[in-house]
Amino acid sequence: MRPVPADFAFETDRLSVAVLGDPARPGLIRQAGAILTPQATAFLPPALRVAPGGPDAAAWLRRAARDATVLTVHEIGGGLAGFVRLHDGGAGEIMFGYLLAERLWGRGLGTELLAGLVSALRAAGCTAVLIGGVDPMNAASMRILRKTGFRRRFDRGPDRSFFFELDLAGP
User: Fold this and answer.
1) Can you give the C-alpha Rg of the chain in angstroms?
2) Residue 74 CA: distances (Å) to CA of 10, 16, 100, 104, 145
3) pLDDT for res 53
4) Residues with Cβ within 8 Å of residue 154, at least 6 apart in sequence
5) Cα–Cα distance between 111 and 107 in angstroms, integer?
6) Using 50, 70 and 90 to split pLDDT, how confident is the model at 76?
7) What ranges in the chain are assigned the alpha helix state H?
8) Rounded CA gap, 147 and 64, in Å?
């Protein structure tokens, strides 16, 4: 089951987000290759990390979309800024992860992206529990999750990740 409809999209003050269309578009692959750096993917699950020397962006996009819905994140009036990956976790849960281009770090866009995602999912009538796994070394993402209303769960993943959740049916 898809966690969001195929036409799901939203905008924030600085970002435009929509479901990934054709992942084989040359322009998208070129832009994705520029942001899929080892640093930008360091805290993603191992299958979605890229090695030094440059990613195969087309293969990365195929892997990311294999069992999930991928959203593209663009700066309004600009280029590709990152991706959000949504996966049906079953039992009323949506698992998610995100990455932003390194050039955009430290500008509040992670907080803006997640606040916009939560707002758009609620506006679409989604009542699932949104769950994000975070590497314990990724303090910036943990701050963003807390800032946008997520609470840390007490379970940990096999890779020692922390999990944060937000009940979209709640306040």
Assistant:
1) 15
2) 11, 5, 10, 11, 20
3) 65
4) none
5) 9
6) very high
7) 26-35, 38-41, 57-65, 109-123, 139-147
8) 26
For residues 145-161, give the mean pLDDT.
83
**Interval 22-60: pLDDT, tens:** 777 878 888 998 899 889 998 888 888 887 766 688 888
Tokens of 129: 């529990």
pTM (predicted TM-score): 0.92
95-142 pLDDT tens trace: 999 999 999 999 999 999 999 999 999 999 999 999 999 988 899 999
Query: Are residues 83 and 73 in contact, defined by beta-carbon separation less than 8 angstroms?
Result: yes
* 167 beta partners: 129
Q: How far apart are CA 112 and CA 117, in angstroms?
A: 9
Nearest to 101 by CA among 160, 147, 41: 41
Query: Which residue matches tokens 């293969």?
Result: 59
CA distance 41 to 169: 30
Instruction: Give 75's DSSP letter.
Output: E
- Axis crossing angle, helix 57-65 with helix 26-35, rounded to the nearest 10: 90
